[in-house]
Specification:
By secondary structure, the chain is α/β, with parallel strands linked by helices. It has 2 domains: about 140 residues, P-loop containing nucleotide triphosphate hydrolases (Rossmann fold, 3-Layer(aba) Sandwich), CATH 3.40.50.300; about 110 residues, no CATH class.
């Protein structure tokens, strides 16, 4: 594994302990990821204390972080998880992730369990914290609207394989892989003239333990060719790409694009 150009565990790279300080995670379930027997300030201060920070300094950092995520430490520092709402607990989880001053924060469906008004507040908070602390986010989500709001770059995966990657503007303006286009076609809309009348995809996903040969999406792809069963496609720049940063793992991206235009 390589973190920011440094091999993890290598004597010339970065140690696992140092990597843990610089990479933290916010989980999907805000309740189960907090210890029910620890008050909020204790949960936030725990990791800094385990990494050698004095107890008093760790407690002070916890209260500062609570304030930075919009929770008054005088009101929330001594509360327990069951005394907070889902949005408040997720703010605590974000504060806990920032307690070691990381460079990378992984957010796994961090707002999917929240209602839309609270989701918007947490997303705005994440955007503000990103600028304030110069953070890099790895944001994992199935919500295409949230992905567009949060991301600078996108990596689309199907059955454990990357199928398309590039700048958010490029992918949202011109998705190339048939799976990516199916994802966008499945987005709900309130426009009565743009309602989906046909299923974007048919069939069930293959067994991830025993995936199909070649391209893993070929069993559900309307453009599959014999080569798709024989050879795993690798990420490459399509022949008529607008950007060299936009990569797609498909044997026939130009044919798919032609057919997509013909069907439009």
């Amino acid at each position: 594994m390589v973190f920011d150009g440094e091999a993890i565990g290598d004597r010339h790279g970065i140690t696992v302990n140092a990597m843990r300080r610089q990479m933290q995670m916010v989980f999907q379930d805000s309740y189960s990821s907090l210890n029910p027997r620890m008050a909020m300030a204790e949960s936030i201060a725990y990791a800094p204390r385990m990494h050698g920070l004095a107890a008093g300094a760790a407690a002070e950092r916890a209260e500062t972080l609570l304030a930075q995520v919009g929770l008054n430490p005088r009101l929330y520092a001594r509360r327990y998880p069951h005394e907070l709402s889902g949005g408040q607990r997720q703010r605590v989880n974000i504060a806990r992730a920032l307690a070691l001053e990381p460079r990378l924060v992984i957010l796994d469906e961090a707002v999917s369990a929240l209602d839309k008004s609270i989701e918007a507040q947490v997303l705005n908070l994440l955007s503000e914290l990103k600028e304030r602390f110069s953070l890099t986010y790895l944001f994992i989500s199935h919500d295409l609207n949230v992905v567009e709001y949060v991301s600078d770059r996108i990596l689309v995966m199907y059955l454990g394989r990357a199928v398309e990657t590039g700048p958010v503007e490029s992918i949202y303006a011109r998705p190339r892989h048939p799976y990516t286009r199916a994802l966008f076609a499945s987005k709900p809309t309130l426009d009565p003239d743009r309602r989906t009348t046909e299923m974007p995809l048919t069939g069930d996903p293959p067994n991830p333990i025993d995936p199909p040969s070649g391209c893993r999406f070929r069993t559900r792809c309307a453009f599959a060719q014999p080569i798709c069963a024989e050879l795993m496609p690798t990420l490459a720049v399509p022949f008529d790409a607008d950007s060299a940063d936009h990569l797609v793992a498909c044997h026939l991206p130009e044919a798919q694009q032609a057919k997509a235009v013909a069907h439009a």
